[in-house]
Every structure is written in C-alpha cells, then in structure tokens.
Amino acid sequence: xxxxxxxxxxxxxxxxxxxxxxxxxxxxxxxxxxxxxxxxxxxxxxxxxxxxxxxxxxxxxxxxxxxxxxxxxxxxxxxxxxxxxxxxxxxxxxxxxxxxxxxxxxxxxxxxxxxxxxxxxxxxxxxxxxxxxxxxxxxxxxxxxxxxxxxxxxxxxxxxxxxxxxxxxxxxxxxxxxxxxxxxxxxxxxxxxxxx
Length: 196
Fold this sequence. Notes:
This protein is 52% helix and 14% strand. By secondary structure, it is an alpha/beta fold.
C-alpha cells in the first residue's frame, strides 16, 4: 500500500508559517494544524478538558480550558508543563495519526507543527520545511498583532529553537519576503515533492 509523503512545516512566530500552510491547503494538499487540534481539545466537549480539569481544576471554566488561567498556572509551577504535556501530547498524537491514515492516498500531506523540532515530531516526517524571515521583519510582524509586547515576544522566542538552528536542521527553507514569492516557492516545492 502506498503512503503519503509527509512534510513537516514549522517556523518561529511571525515567520509566515500559517500563511504558508494556507497556501499548501489552497493547492489541494491536506494540512494538519497542531494549534487547531489543541484549540479543539481545549474547547467545550474537547477530549483534553476532563483530564486537565482533574490535574488543574482552576484552569477549566464553563466546560472548556481557560488558556490565560492555564498560562498563569504554568508560570507559577515549573513541573506543571510536563504534567500538562503528558495529558495533551497523546491526544494530539492520536489526532495526527488519524489524519495521516485518513489521507493515506494523498501524494503529499503537510503537518503544521510550531514546535516540530522541539517535540521531536520531525522524526515522523519524510522532509521538513522551515519558513523564515529577517529578524526585523519577524519583530515588526509580531509586534503589529494586538496585545503583543516586546517582553511577550522575547518570552515566546526563548521557548522556541533559534531560527538559524531550525534552518540548519530543515530539508527545505522558504524565506517569506512577499505573498507572491512565498506562493511561487510553495508551488515549486509541491511539484518537486510530488515528482519524487
């Protein structure tokens, strides 16, 4: 039985990862979005709500996970993140495996995972793609988002693998200078991967 070629897509905050993922989807490539899966797991009726309520009762309100309350708990307790990950990661992995099975006949599948290298998920992929931009472009993009401060951006970047390291580990790199250039690079990469 043939299986899809699995491309892991990642990039630090503000590099254009979501936009690039949307371009793959527009081209007809099935895209699995790790952030969207976590959001669904945390929402009312989501599979992560009950285990998180048991471990962190203060983080659940009105049947869904309150992300800001959870963030405060994680900041206050250094062991909390690994406990949370032990609850959520298996649910995320099961969803990802089901997605890959459901799209087994597609020639190419993209896994959009912000912490691809940090979580070791790159081991599941046949190739990896890192999207990147100049540091000043990245900062300008992120700081233009509502409610993001320089300090918050620095905290986010501290948790992510440095861009240079991601690029060094990637099979493919796309610099997101403009929408047109990025779309052309995505189309070229799709054509290249489908022909392998």
